[in-house]
Structure formats: structure tokens, C-alpha cells
Design goal:
The chain is α/β, with parallel strands linked by helices and 334 residues long. Helices cover 41% and strands 10% of the residues. The structure holds iron/sulfur cluster.
Length: 334
């Protein structure tokens, strides 16, 4: 049996839900209000146990979404469970959409702080600003700095926090208006330099018009084994999918049994992972052309992950035979 050995991770996140108040155009997880499911409290506790036992060398985990504050009770409980189980917690992410008034913002942040949350990450970008008025982001950052301390508030990113102060704080700002004021080229460059935009998920489907495209064959050089075995950045989603690097929509296995993932995933059961780990997107393209009538886009692709995702989205429309292409809703909500 051919196996791909996945090392225990040293840093990762629990995606409590893909549900979000927003549908940001850069979101690699295709989060949107249309997702409905949340990780159960039982599963959060189970993962804390599993992490402590099978991935004990942790720099820390973070709580992610979607938007965790849409289910504050679960987020709070997840903080408590990480403390109870001795799993180091780094931060909770939020888009600050819920920070409509000072009292509620301070109350919820205080509850988390008192339960053991050491830090909070607050997202701020032109993508978030399409859905969240800047005044809410500003409120979240100001109050968080009082509660967590200035060094425990991760503003992602401070470049856009400064820049967006020039726009109406009480209204959302459509991305097209932002692009027209900054200029497409300057904006595209700043998304990469100051946000670290990842060319997968919705960024690949909705923002590719900003970047130069190249023929598919340009991306044939490397396989994806390094991304699959990267221990620095993994996520476990509410369905138990184990996702490495930024390969959203690809499940390496069932995270309920972390030990079995770390012993090696059976590549016969997950042939698309075998193809990507050995022959990369070239092999995936061949499979899709030979078996699923896939046609490459004439205009080309901005990155190998853009091509990969385009192929996978095509395959899931044709068949549900690939266990590793999950969750399928990811491909619908791109
Ligand atoms: S090409 Fe696909 S499998 Fe490879 S790193 Fe990108 S998203 Fe992951």
C-alpha cells in the first residue's frame, strides 16, 4: 500500500465553521453566510485531546472561520477547552463585523480574555471593508488593545488599517471603488506585498483579473508534496477534513484520527493527492482531460493553485468519486 507520511503539525487552526458574515473576494476557504454547519463542542474537545497526544510539539493553535464570533458560545468554549487540555492557544481571528457597539465588543473580548485567550487577530483589508464598515474594525482594534494589551492584538494588516482611514468609516466600500482610487496595478501589488494574497480559493476565482496569466504548462515544474507535508500551517474544518498549507478543498484525511494521518495516508484511497504529490498539476490536468473532458482556459492562469482549483472544481461537477475533494460546498461557493 502506497502511503504519504504527514508529519505532526507544529502550528494549526480549527475552522469552527466556514460560515461568515461576509463573502470576501480573497477568502481561500470560500466562506460566506451560506455555510450553516459548525464544529461540535464534542469535536473541539476531541481535537484538543488528539493534538495533545499526537502533535504535542505545538507553537500553538488558533481558532478560525468563517467568522468565529457568529457562534460566540462555541468560541468561548473552545478557548476554555484549550486551556483545560493544555493545548497552547495563539489567538482567535475575527473580521470585526459584529463590533457594532462598545459595550458588546468589550464584553465578549473580556470574556475570552478571562477564559485564557492570550491574543486576538483582527482582519482589516479592502476585501473586508466591502462588508464591514471601518468604524467597526477601528472599534475592535481600540477595545482589543485595552483588553489584551497592545502587543497582543494582531492587526492583519496594519498597512491597510492606515490606508482605509481615508475612506468613509460609516459605510462599506465596494472593491471596485477602492481599485479605482488606488489604481488596479498598485492595488494588485499591495495585495501581494502587504496582505500576502494567496492565489487559491476565492482569490483565484474572483481576483484573477488583477494578475498576469500564463499558459498551464508554465506551472508543470513542481509537484505538491512539500505543501502536503508542511507542518507549519494546517487546518481542521468542521467536517473533520485535514487541510494542509493553503490547499483548501483538498482533504488529506479524517482529522478525528490524527494518529492515522501521521502514520501515512493511503494514496490508493486518495488518488488525486497521489497525482498532485508526484506529478503535480501536470498529472492532474492529464487526468481531467482524459477522463472528465476538461479544457484549459485560453486566457491562462495566475498560479499553479489557480489551475489546480479550476481542474478540481470541474471534476467535482462530474463525479463524487474522489473522497479527497471535500467539502464539495467549497467548490460551489467559490
Ligand atoms: S497546486 Fe493544488 S495541491 Fe498544489 S499547492 Fe496548490 S492548491 Fe495545493
Amino acid at each position: 500500500m502506497k502511503k504519504l507520511k504527514i508529519p505532526p503539525f507544529s502550528s494549526g487552526g480549527l475552522i469552527l465553521s466556514y460560515q461568515c458574515s461576509s463573502s470576501c473576494r480573497h477568502c481561500i476557504y470560500a466562506s460566506t453566510p451560506r455555510w450553516k454547519d459548525w464544529m461540535s463542542e464534542h469535536d473541539v474537545e476531541h481535537y484538543m485531546d488528539q493534538i495533545r497526544e499526537f502533535a504535542p510539539n505545538q507553537r500553538g493553535i488558533h481558532l478560525a472561520g468563517g467568522e468565529p464570533f457568529l457562534n460566540f458560545d462555541l468560541t468561548l468554549r473552545a478557548v476554555e477547552l484549550s486551556v483545560e487540555h493544555g493545548v497552547p492557544l495563539q489567538y482567535v481571528e475575527t473580521n470585526a463585523h459584529w463590533c457594532e457597539d462598545d459595550e458588546l465588543t468589550a464584553y465578549q473580548m473580556n470574556m475570552l480574555r478571562e477564559s485564557g485567550l492570550p491574543a486576538i487577530l483582527i482582519s482589516v483589508s479592502p476585501f473586508h471593508n466591502e462588508f464591514t464598515p471601518f468604524e467597526r474594525t477601528d472599534r475592535a482594534i481600540t477595545i482589543a488593545r485595552e483588553i489584551f494589551g497592545p502587543y497582543n492584538v494582531l492587526v492583519y494588516t496594519s498597512y491597510f488599517y492606515e490606508q482605509l482611514q481615508d475612506y468613509n468609516p460609516h459605510a462599506t466600500v465596494p472593491l471596485n471603488r477602492y481599485l479605482n482610487t488606488i489604481g488596479h496595478e498598485a492595488a494588485a501589488q499591495s495585495f501581494v506585498e502587504h496582505y500576502g494574497l494567496i492565489p487559491s480559493g476565492r482569490a483565484a476565482s474572483k481576483l484573477n483579473f488583477l494578475y498576469q496569466k500564463q499558459p498551464a504548462s508554465v506551472f508543470f515544474k513542481n509537484n505538491c508534496s512539500a505543501e502536503f507535508t508542511n507542518p507549519e500551517h494546517i487546518h481542521i474544518d468542521p467536517y473533520g477534513n485535514y487541510i494542509t498549507s493553503f490547499c483548501s478543498g483538498i482533504s488529506l484525511g479524517d482529522a478525528h484520527q490524527l494518529n492515522s494521518i501521521f502514520e501515512g495516508i493511503d494514496l490508493q484511497e486518495r488518488p488525486i493527492i497521489e497525482i498532485l504529490a508526484t506529478t503535480g498539476v501536470e498529472g492532474l490536468l492529464k487526468l481531467a482531460q482524459d477522463q472528465f473532458d476538461f479544457k484549459v482556459a485560453d486566457e491562462g492562469y495566475i498560479a499553479k493553485c489557480h489551475l489546480c482549483q479550476d481542474i478540481r472544481a470541474h471534476i467535482v461537477q462530474r463525479t463524487d468519486q474522489f473522497e479527497e475533494l471535500k467539502p464539495v460546498e467549497f467548490y460551489r461557493y467559490l
